[in-house]
Task: inverse folding
């Protein structure tokens, strides 16, 4: 059934029916409900191209991803996108992912907007000082940030309490007797990495432990980056008795390096990985202790809900959502090993 047939059945003009279907305020609530009920009853489906021409809307939300960020190879990110896609689909909205060189991100945002290919954006992996956020705020374009920046006040965002997560990890290891805890982290210009780094330092302070600058190391945001960084740490004397990794991309490499060195996780050295191991990773049979966040699919649904709420005009305080992490115990952490035990295990490996 098309718009003309639906209008004829209702005895209303096509203009009135179209405006009712698209939520215009000059149509009474009673008429709108009548039109919507008839549309459902008769299986009316709007012509997408015609509606876009009439409303100027693309019925699509964009995600601009810088090439080399690592997320497109992260199963968790794919699950976030899946949840987002499912929720947007219920509202008749598509998700468009565009890649861009880091230096060309802002130009890609502008190109998508000028071509009317999207109505707004989900901005991933925010940075502490984020030119994308500032640009979109100045442009008045609807967007939801997946993560906060150093100035989180004036826009919609969804985030996790990253600082609390790493503080939990330190608390766990300190409670097991570990005093020298290494920390492998992503570049600190990324908001999540900065927040988790602050949580690590806070956790040490609360446990009355001092950080060892040689054991706080930045890794290239990749599996290889985690592997190479852990190999370098394994050459140090003394070897830390535990290590926390602030992301699961590097976490895969860190765990692989420890296994290759012949170390038994949870006995020779303890490991906690933020977000745990990606579901497609096969690294022995040891369950990795993790700082766990709610299911990635649920995160995607939440991002979509915030964008839909933004379009509906909900107040900003309802569009800033912070979820709490939890410690998910595995078998990769345990009591601090006796003096020399790790060195002997490493030599044997």
Result:
């Amino acid at each position: 059934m098309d718009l003309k047939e639906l209008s004829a059945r209702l005895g209303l003009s096509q203009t009135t029916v179209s405006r009712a279907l698209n939520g215009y305020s000059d149509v009474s609530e009673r008429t709108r409900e009548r039109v919507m009920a008839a549309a459902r009853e008769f299986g009316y489906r709007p012509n997408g191209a015609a509606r876009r021409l009439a409303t100027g809307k693309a019925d699509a939300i964009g995600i601009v991803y810088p090439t080399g960020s690592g997320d497109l190879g992260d199963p968790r990110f794919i699950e976030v996108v899946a949840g987002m896609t499912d929720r947007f689909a219920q509202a008749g909205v598509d998700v468009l992912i565009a890649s861009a060189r880091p230096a060309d991100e802002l130009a890609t945002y502008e190109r998508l907007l000028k071509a009317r290919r999207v109505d707004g954006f989900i901005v991933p992996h925010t940075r502490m000082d984020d030119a994308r956020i500032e640009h979109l705020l100045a442009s008045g374009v609807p967007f939801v940030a997946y993560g906060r920046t150093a100035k989180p006040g004036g826009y919609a965002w969804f985030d996790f309490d990253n600082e609390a997560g790493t503080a939990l990890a330190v608390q766990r290891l300190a409670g097991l007797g570990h005093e020298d805890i290494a920390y492998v982290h992503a570049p600190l210009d990324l908001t999540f990495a900065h927040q988790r780094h602050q949580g690590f330092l806070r956790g040490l302070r609360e446990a009355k432990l001092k950080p060892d600058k040689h054991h706080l190391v930045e890794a290239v945001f990749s599996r290889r980056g985690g592997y190479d960084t852990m190999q370098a740490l394994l050459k140090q004397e003394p070897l830390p008795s535990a290590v926390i990794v602030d992301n699961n991309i590097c976490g895969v490499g860190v765990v692989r390096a420890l296994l290759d060195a012949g170390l038994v996780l949870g006995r020779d050295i303890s490991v906690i990985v933020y977000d745990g191991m990606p579901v497609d990773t096969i690294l022995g049979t040891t369950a990795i202790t993790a700082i766990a966040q709610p299911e990635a699919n649920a995160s995607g649904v939440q991002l979509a809900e915030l964008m839909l709420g933004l379009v509906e005009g909900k107040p900003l305080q309802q569009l800033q959502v912070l979820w709490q992490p939890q410690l998910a115990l595995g078998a990769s952490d345990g009591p601090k090993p006796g003096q020399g035990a790790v060195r002997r295990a490493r030599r044997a490996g």
Q: What stands out?
A: DSSP finds 13 helices and twelve strands in the chain. The two ends are 71 Å apart (CA to CA). The first strand starts at residue 60 and ends at 66. The CA atoms of residues 81 and 300 lie 6 Å apart.
